[in-house]
Design brief:
Length: 398
């Protein structure tokens, strides 16, 4: 099924945008979904606000990396399965090649102590980037931070606060909270006919297709493990890290603790989806073949769980009750993303001994000010300067 509406842009233009986002989109899922909204909804007008919200809701209801799923869905909106496929590939490939190159350098030269120094600056700048992104998403999707907005959209703000607090307290994103938020808002704002008639609701679960690969034992284990990572882990970005740690370090003993921490650092200092760290891990375990298998196994379920329900999701999303459901989920999801900013910020600004580091705070604040005041300065420019300054400060001054 091909979606409705005549697009005001070409498929090639959309693919080029996602390729650019794949190699220049720093900041992880919070920033990436913010960039998509800013560039495709606000600036270019290629995607409507409703289509964006539907994509956010579907991405959060399905397991896998949220930013990649949203990108795939936005590709589907006007260009169907071909658009979803090409945008997904364009988005993932640049960062995959970057982590592959870093994996080769890591294995050849041993360790990445310089990466920790670079991340000292980059990580702090990223907090400023994702903080601004979370603020813009909040004000655009829920309302401005004023009394009138709180009074008019009080329930959405309540769901937003619930998502934020749940994420901060549990330090993870719970899909049941998002679903509950959507159902609550739907029942209050636009209860469906089956509620009024007393009929029961049937829920359908999508079971992902298992990815099969070569019979070589290591590659088979990589394929199976990373398929599970892509098919059954809910939440954005770093939500997959605990699952990866359990399998990569504890179950299979593919990497030690230091190597795993370095793999997470690689994900944070490279653009594109954070989950692309699976390519780095796959290379360390099984070379280029391992990197390719790990990346494909992780993103294939994400792709399938987006494009398979997309035609039906778009059709039912026009229903007022479903619209209310999506609005409720969106409020809770954006609250959770804001909570994730708080968690990442705390871990960046406070060291393991509980001491506040003033330098990263200055980096984050200056980044936020620059992005707010100077529109011509882009995120890649800030990341580059932050990387250089972070390396100098961490290596020579601290």
């Amino acid at each position: 099924m091909t979606p409705n509406n005549t697009p005001q842009y070409s498929l090639w233009a959309l693919v080029k945008y996602f390729f650019y986002l794949g190699y220049a989109g720093f900041g992880g899922p919070v920033a990436l979904v913010g960039y998509m909204h800013r560039d495709l909804v606000e600036k270019r007008g290629w995607i409507s606000e409703d289509d964006y919200k539907e994509g956010m809701a579907l991405a959060q209801l399905s397991p896998g990396p949220m930013a990649a799923q949203l990108g795939i869905y936005l590709g589907y909106v006007h260009y169907g399965f071909l658009g979803a496929t090409l945008t997904g590939i364009a988005f993932v490939l640049p960062s995959f090649f970057m982590v592959l190159i870093l994996g080769i350098a890591y294995k050849e030269y041993g360790g990445l102590s310089w990466m920790q120094a670079i991340f000292y600056g980059v990580g702090a700048a990223v907090i400023g980037i994702i903080g601004i992104s979370a603020y813009k998403l909040t004000t655009k999707s829920i309302g401005k931070l004023n009394l009138a907005s709180f009074q008019q959209n009080w329930l959405l703000w309540l769901l937003y606060a619930a998502g934020l607090l749940m994420t901060v307290i549990t330090q993870r994103e719970e899909i049941l909270v998002f679903i509950a938020a959507g159902l609550l808002y739907m029942f209050i704002k636009a209860p469906p006919s089956w509620v009024k008639s007393g009929k029961t609701l049937t829920l359908f679960l999508f079971i992902p297709t298992i990815f099969w690969t070569t019979d070589q034992k290591t590659l088979w284990n990589i394929a199976w493990f990373f398929t599970k990572a892509g098919a059954f882990v809910f939440g954005s970005g770093l939500a997959i890290v605990p699952f990866l740690h359990g399998g990569v370090v504890q179950e299979f003993n593919w990497l030690n603790e230091k190597e795993f921490i370095d793999a997470v650092a690689v994900a944070m200092i490279t653009p594109g989806p954070v989950v692309i760290t699976v390519g780095f891990i796959g290379y360390l375990v099984g070379g280029v073949a391992g990197a390719c298998v790990a990346a494909l196994a992780t993103f294939l379920p994400c792709y399938l769980l987006t494009v398979i329900p997309a035609p039906y999701f778009k059709k039912i999303a026009k229903n007022q009750s479903i619209k209310a459901f999506v609005d409720g989920i969106t409020a809770s999801v954006i609250g959770a993303l804001t909570g994730a900013v708080a968690i990442i910020g705390y871990r960046t600004f406070v060291n393991t001994e509980g001491v506040v580091d003033v330098v990263p705070i200055l980096f984050a604040v200056i980044t936020a000010i620059i992005l707010t005041k100077y529109k011509k300065i882009t995120e890649p420019h800030i990341i580059l300067v932050a990387a250089i300054l972070g390396f100098i400060i961490k290596t020579y001054l601290i």
